[in-house]
Amino acid sequence: MINQKIVKRKLILFLIFIIGFALFALLVHYVHRGGGDDANFPILIKKYNLLGWLKYRYDTWSGRLASETYCYIFGYLPLYFWKISNLIHYGILTFFLYKYYELFNKHRNNKRDYIMAVFCIILPFGMNFGALCDGAFWVTGAMNYLWITAAGIASFYPILYYSINKQYPYLFFRIIALFFGFVAGSSQEQVGTTLLVFCILFLIYIFFICRKKSLFLIIETIVVFFSFLLNYFSPGNSLRFTNEVKARIPDFLTILPYQRLEYSYRWIMDALINHMGILLILTWILLIILLVNKSKKKIIDLISMVILIVAILSIAVKSNISQFFNFQAKWGILTFSKTSYIAMAFWSFILIFTIIAAYSLYNFKIKGLAVVLLILAAYASTSLMIFSPTMYESGCRTMFVPSIILCIAILLLINDCITKYKKYALLLVLISLGFPIYQYFKFAKIFSTAFNFHYPW
Fold this sequence. Notes:
Elements (H helix, E strand, L loop, with lengths): L3 H28 L5 H8 L5 H11 L4 H12 L2 H26 L5 H13 L6 H9 L1 H6 L1 H20 L5 H15 L3 H21 L5 H18 L2 H13 L9 H18 L4 H15 L5 H18 L21 H24 L4 H18 L16 H21 L4 H8 L1 H16 L8
Helix pairs in contact: 1-5, 1-6, 1-21, 3-4, 3-13, 5-6, 5-9, 5-19, 6-19, 9-10, 9-11, 10-12, 11-12, 11-18, 15-16, 15-17, 15-19, 16-17, 17-18, 18-19, 19-20
C-alpha cells in the first residue's frame, strides 16, 4: 500500500523544485550573454566534424574534451537548446545539493526538508555576482563552469553515500556518476582536481579505516583519474600555456620564486575575501551561532567566536577601512604598502580560524572534519588559478567552483542550526537567504529593464 504521507512529501518537494527551476528559467531566457568565444566557435566548428574538432582543440588549445564537445554541439544548435541544457544542469546541481543534505540529515522532518529544498535552490545565488554572471549565464562560461560543476557534484554522490551508509545508492546514481566522473575529470581543472583528490581520500578512508572493499569506488576513481590525466597531458595545454605566458605575463616563469609566491598569495587573498560573495560571511555567522549553542565551550571556541565576529564587523564597515581590503593583487608591483601586509596577515588569520572554529565546533569528530575538508577544498580550488598566467584575466568566474563547494559546507551548518534552534528555523533560513534572494532580484532587474545583458556596474 502506498504511503500517502511519503507521496505528499515528494509531491511538495517536486513542486518546490519546479518553481525554483521556473524562476531560474526566466533568468536564463532573458539574462544570458554572448560574445567572445560564443561568436568565434560557430565559425570555427564548421571546418571540422566532432572528432576533428576535438583533435584540433586537444592538440592546439585544451584537453577539456567534454567542454569542447559541448561547445561543438551547441555551436550548431539554436540558442534555446543551450537554455534548456543550462536549466537541466542547474537542476542537477541543486538536486544533488539537496541529496547531500539528506545524507547528513538522519532525522526526516517534512518542514525542514521543504525549507532546505528552497535553501539548495537559492543558495548558489549567494556567490559573487560576477562569478554567477560568467559561470552560469554566459553561454560558453556556463558550459565550462555550471555544467561541469554539476557533473562533479553528481559524480561524487555515490562515493559519499557509500561512505556514510556503507551501502550503494540506486544503480541509476552509480551509472550517471561514472559518466559525470569522466565529464568532470576531462574538463574544468578546478572541478577535476577537487573531485580526484576527494575520490582518493575517500577511497583510502573506506579501504583502510572502514575496512570495506568497494569495486565501484575503485572504478569511479580510475575513471576520474584517467579522464584527468587525459586532460592534463593534452599537447594543447602546453601550447596554450606558452602562448598565454608570452601574451599576458612574460616573466611568469622567470621571476624570482619569493616574488611569484607573494604575487600569487595576494591574488588568493583578494579572491577569497573580496570575491566570494556572501558565502564566507554566512559561514562565519553560522559557525558563531552554533558555537554559542555549544554546551561545553573550550577556550578555543570563545577565541574563535571573537575573531569571527571581528571579521564580520570589519566587512560591515568595509567602506571606512577599504585599505584593509586592498591586497594590491596585481602582477609587476615592485613595492607594496605596509597596509597591504597588515591586510594579508589579518585575513590569513581569519581564514585559519575559520577552519579551527569548524573543527572545534564538532569536538574534532567526523562531521567537523567534513566541514573542514569542504572549506579547505574551497581555499585550494581558488589557489589552483595561481598556476595559470590567465589568473588576472579569467575574472570572477574562477570563484564559481569554490563557491559551490562552500555552499555544501553551509548546508551542513544551516542544517545543524535548524536542529539546535527549532523555534527560529524559518527565521534563520530567511536571514541566510537574504543576500541570495537579493542577488536573484538583481538579475531580475536586468531583464525587467532590458533584454540584452549588461553588467550593472
